[in-house]
Each structure stands twice: as C-alpha cells, then as structure tokens.
Amino acid sequence: MQEIGLVELSQIIYDYCGLRYNERLPILKDKVSKRLLELGLSHLEYCHYLKMSPSEWDVLVELLTINETYFYREENQLNECCSNLVSLMKSSNRNRPIRIWSAACSSGEEPYSVAMLIQETGIFQPGSVEIIATDINKKVLQKAMKGWYHHGSFAFRRTPEHLLKKYFLDEAGGYQIKPTIQKMVQFHYLNLLEEDKVSQIGVVDIIFCRNVLIYFDYETTKRVIRNLYQNLAAGGFLFLGHAESITETTLGLKKVDSDTSFYYRKESD
C-alpha cells in the first residue's frame, strides 16, 4: 500500500509542477518522510491531504525544490545581457520600459545581480528597466524580498568585492541589499506550468530561466518553453543554464553563440 501511495504521490507532484519522481521513488520517500511523520499520514493519505488542504503544496514544494544559487552565477551570461543586449535595446526607440524576467529566482541572487549590473552601466534612468522575479517556492521568495544574506553564505562566492561594498549594507551579521537595488525588483509567486498565470507577467524583453529545465522531462520542458515564448517580445532574448538545451523545442527561438556564452533570440513575429 505504501508503494502504491508513493507512486500516486509522484504522479500528482508531476501534474502540479513538472518534477518527475516516478523513477526516483526512494529519493521522494526520503524527502517527504519527516513531513509525513509530523502529520501521522501514509503516502496515500498524504495524497488526499494535498487535495483537501491546497496550502500544503507550499510545504511540499519547499521540500522538493533545490535552491542552490549565488550572486553573479554564470556571469558571462549576465554580462552579455547587461552590457550588450540591454544597451542595444536602450538605443532603439521604445515607448515602454525594458522588462527583464527572472523566471525561477529562488532567494533573489539572480535578479539582484541583474539589477546591480544594470546600475553599473550608468545609462539607465530610474524606471526605464523593470525586473520581475518569480518562483514556485514561497519560502525562498520571502527571503528574496527581504534581501538579507548571512555573512557566511555561499551566495557571495563569486561577488566582486567592490560591488559588495557598493550595493550592500553590512548589518546584523549579514549583508542587506541597498534600497536602490531592492526597489528595482518585483517578486511574485508563480508556477511556470500554469499558462494563464504566466501570461499575466505580460510582455518581457529578456527572460532568465536557468538551471530549471534540467529537472523536467521532454514534455514538461516543451510546456514551460511554450509559456515563456508567449511572453517574450519579438526580438527578445532567453537565457538558459549552460547544461540546458531546447534544440527540439525552440518554436521560433534561434540560438545565438557569442564569444563567451549562448542564448536564444525570438524571431520577429
């Protein structure tokens, strides 16, 4: 009975957020065992509990998702975005702000890194760039919105010292993002599989969705890319992790190779 319940649990997790555990049942069992012990439920009973108490998904997602990240991760892509692509957009005629979306922002290091590098260009007026940051894990979103990181955090493993001093306040045993950077980023909860909710993000010029697709199977990857594509402006850019490829699911996305990185560009409609 426990095995049947574990299989059902893996399926409803897949349906909800695309994470695939049907071939990794022992890993799933280990991740949820403590929570089930707290609730006094079997795997099958927990499946019913999720249906009756939707807020429990917040707890489960926190147990399942990996939120390993840090400031200036894969910085060649960040530099490609900020020094080249964003500058190129700035030089064109526009009637709206440049919009950048960090589609799986975790605890905020990625969108804050983008914000700091945009500030470093020195060419953008306040309000000329909007950064939207979303994640399915509400707990890490709360941390991201606070913008405070412990001194010993691995989040700073690649942070240049001069930027740490320029954009952070040293307080209470950690580093606090300065308000000038913090207010550049808007954080929202979002499940990338919910097409109607994703569409509410609106048109964006640049999307970062890095190190997310590696956790999905082919069909889920197609769904996510399709949802991202619908929001991406014609001529806009999509950045994935270096280990990720969407060669067979690109729709109207063309791969662009630079000297130091790669990304995808949406062809004109």
Automatic annotation (TrEMBL):
Its EC number is 2.1.1.80. It is an enzyme of class 2 (transferase). It comes from Bacillus salipaludis. Residues 1-269 form the CheR-type methyltransferase domain. This is protein-glutamate O-methyltransferase. The lineage of its organism: Bacteria, Bacillati, Bacillota, Bacilli, Bacillales. Signal peptide: none annotated. It catalyses: L-glutamyl-[protein] + S-adenosyl-L-methionine = [protein]-L-glutamate 5-O-methyl ester + S-adenosyl-L-homocysteine. Keywords: Methyltransferase, S-adenosyl-L-methionine, Transferase. The keyword S-adenosyl-L-methionine applies. GO terms for biological process: methylation. One of its GO terms (molecular function) is methyltransferase activity. The keyword S-adenosyl-L-methionine applies. SUPFAM superfamilies: S-adenosyl-L-methionine-dependent methyltransferases. PANTHER family: CHEMOTAXIS PROTEIN METHYLTRANSFERASE, CHEMOTAXIS PROTEIN METHYLTRANSFERASE 2.
